[in-house]
Amino acid sequence: MQTNESNTSFNAPGNSESGSDTPFDKCHEADAVESCTQIQQAASDESPDFDDSDDDFLSLSQPPPKDGLDFEIAGIQSEPDTESNTNRKQSLTGIIREALITVCLAIALFAGMSLALQNSEIVSGSMKPTLENGERILVYKLAYKFGHEPQRGDIIVFTPPAQVRSDNDYIKRIIGMPGEIVEIKNGSVYIHKQDGSTLTLDEPYIDEPPYYYYISPEPIPQNNYFVMGDNRNNSADSHKAWTVPQDNIVGRALCQFWPLSKFGSALNYKLPP
Predict the structure, then answer these.
(1) Phi and psi angles of residue 117, each rounded to the nearest 5 degrees, phi first
(2) How high is the pLDDT of residue 105?
(3) How far is CA 144 from the centre of its chain?
(4) Taking 50 as the threshold, does the pLDDT of residue 185 lie above it?
(5) What are the phi and psi torsion angles at 211 (to 5°)?
(6) CA-CA distance, 171 to 126, in Å (whole number)?
């Protein structure tokens, strides 16, 4: 019947009863082969190129030669050691430099203080009650340099004149100025000035009024000063007929630093010019 012929003509590929390939089977196989070829070609295009040689596989899979690695490690380890040694040397150099600077500054400071200041100890009672035996003061040795002149009321340390015959420095208070005549009577000190006026000194710092009489035989020489101790009745000073040349003045008493109870005490007293 026609119906049977139609069913037979549409048998599935490869199921032919005769076992032979039909034109349809051949066409299907060709399409499959072409499709596989295209897939392989696409995969080949997307994958990276590799060289099949053994050397390339070794270069990708094996570590660098041992000698090269050791060299790199040795180089990496040596850099910090070199830098550390350099830092230590620089640090040591810096410490030495700072120490030298400190020593030089200390020497310069000491030299400057020695030029400007003197530590003096009181070894007599001639300046009581202002200064007692055993107390210490700082003497400013530049006080009368650079044009500054001694003033009445200043306490000065000086080398005594030759007629005193002493190897020790003295400390007294300036009372009379060049050109003046000093008179001591009735427990007071009178200054006869060059202009003919007379100044009576008010001296709250003395131990007790002097009980002797004295008057200068002549005006005080230029660049000389009449000095007296605050302990007026127990002091070898200018009322023994000598004066102090300005060149003999070591310096002016700056302040007292011992004992601590009198630290910083002002020693000088401003008297009228």
Answers:
(1) -125, 150
(2) 86
(3) 32
(4) yes
(5) -105, 10
(6) 8
Strand-pairing partners, residue 183, are 190, 215
The alpha carbon of residue 152 and the mean position of all alpha carbons in its chain are separated, in whole angstroms, by 42
CB 226 within 8 A of CB 193: no
Distance, CA of 273 to CA of 143 (rounded, Å): 18
What is residue 178's DSSP assignment? Answer: T
- pLDDT (tens digit, 9 = 90+) per residue, 11-22? 434 444 444 444
Helix (H, G, I), strand (E, B) or coil at 45: helix
Side chain identity, residue 272: P
- The answer, yes or no, to whether residue 243 has pLDDT greater than 60, is yes
Which tokens sit at 109? Answer: 């400071």
Strand ranges, E, within 70-161? 117-121, 136-140, 155-158
CA 125 to chain centre: 44
Q: What are the tokens at 130? A: 């202002």
Return d(Cα 208, Cα 203) in angstroms, integer.
10
The DSSP letter of residue 124 is S
* Catalytic residue annotation: 126, 172
